[in-house]
Amino acid sequence: MIAGSLRLRLLAAGAVSIVIALGVAAFGLSVLFERHVERRMADDLAVVLDRLVAGLDRDADGKLTVADPPDDPRFERPLSGLYWQVTREPGGLVDRSRSLWDEGLALPEDEPAEGTLHRHRIDGPGGASLLALERRVVLPPRLGGGVVRPVVARDRADLTAATADFTRDLLPFVGLVALLLVIASAVQVRIGLAPLATVRARLAAIRSGQAERLGTAFPDEVQPLAAEVDALLASRDRQVETARARAADLAHGLKTPLQVLSGDIDRLKQKGETAIAADLDAVGETMRRHVERELARVRRTAVAADAVAVVAEVAARVVEVVRRTPAGDALDWDIAVDPALAARIAPDDLAEILGNLLENAARHARERVAVTAQADSGEVVVRVVDDGPGIPAALVPQALRRGGRIDAGPGTGLGLAIVRDIAEAWNGGLRLGPTEPGRMTAAVHLPQVLRGPR
Prior knowledge:
By secondary structure, the chain is an alpha+beta fold. It folds into 3 domains: 6-161; 209-306; 307-454, Histidine kinase-like ATPase, C-terminal domain (Heat Shock Protein 90, 2-Layer Sandwich), CATH 3.30.565. The chain is built from 9 helices and 15 strands. The chain has helices at 6-54, 157-208, 223-270, 274-300, 311-323, 326-329, 347-364, 396-400, 415-425; strands spanning 56-58, 64-66, 82-89, 92-96, 117-123, 129-135, 137-138, 147-155, 309-310, 332-337, 342-343, 368-376, 379-386, 429-432, 440-449. The strands form 3 sheets. Strands 9, 10, 11, 12, 13, 14 and 15 form a 7-stranded mixed beta sheet that branches. Strands 3, 4, 5, 6, 7 and 8 form a 6-stranded antiparallel beta sheet that branches. Helix 1 (6-54) runs antiparallel to helix 2 (157-208). The model has no long low-confidence stretch (mean pLDDT 83). Its main location: membrane. InterPro entries: HAMP_dom (IPR003660), HATPase_C_sf (IPR036890), HATPase_dom (IPR003594), His_kinase_dom (IPR005467), Sig_transdc_His_kin-like_C (IPR004358), TCS_sensor_his_kinase (IPR050428). Residues 190-241 form the HAMP domain. Keywords: ATP-binding, Kinase, Membrane, Nucleotide-binding, Phosphoprotein, Transferase, Transmembrane, Transmembrane helix, Two-component regulatory system. It catalyses: ATP + protein L-histidine = ADP + protein N-phospho-L-histidine.
């Protein structure tokens, strides 16, 4: 489904990109928040460390001690997560907070420069990870001189919990942003693909005969495609015109030999050589039908976008011609067509269709032939009805095949095939039926053209 849809592929790619980008952004924001909180925590610990150093003094026995320890109550609560400790070099532990209980803070084996703050991650009571801040302080003579390393530390669990809370608060917002971005991406894809929908609509208009070219009203990215399609259509039109011209030349080239052959047939009949004349007449008819067949094939690639045929006018003209033939002179002809009814077909092609159908009807009808036409769901349905023997339903496919014959009468079996080819060239079709004895109907379906009042 996705592989066959450019829209779905773009939406899927956009959604995946948005999710990945926002996921990376959320992770980055969490890391930045953690570092920010850690810096703030270190700043707070630095203040406590300064207070701790300032509180160093001697007790009544002359021992170094923290006379004024930091007053945060967590330093007094065992294993509270906030600790301080002072050690002497050498000499070991000087003092520590009650929160350490009977444990100590194990500092790294380093020698920080005097007065410089050092930040460490160390293990604390119960294996907790601590953020520790220490400073190497050289004591004045009044405190006995020497070097001490005061350190304050805080459990990093507080930092981890704050980061987790921030991430939980961030995720709904990230989800909302993702939803909005996906919607925006869908709108962007819709707008971006709109020119392709326009191309499809205009191609449909070209196929239906409502337009001849795509035109130039497209974005710069689509215009080269439209120009190539228009160039292809122009090339096709030139090829079609060339084919039509050659077909017309072929028809005119064969017209004179066929006329000569017709004259020879008449002379043979006058001499009494009717059998030979009949054979030559059949050959001439076959040649004429084959020419008509090839002309019909040319019509399949020569559909004009603005062709319109007024059905009543064409039907009246063709009936008038067939009525004068020996077969048509003895029949009653009935035309019932709305004068305003028009079809999307060249008038000459409609005349060719009706000519073939009316010749067949005149040849098989007993007394009457009717021509009707009506609009039906955007189509014009032209029906030729005769009161002849009809065609058995099982033989209809054979009658529509090229050269298909279902009787031994005159003809080449190409008439109905030509009618079908011309109708299909104009996005229509041919149907035969009903086929019961006493009534035969040939129905031609063509696209309807709605015309305004004249």
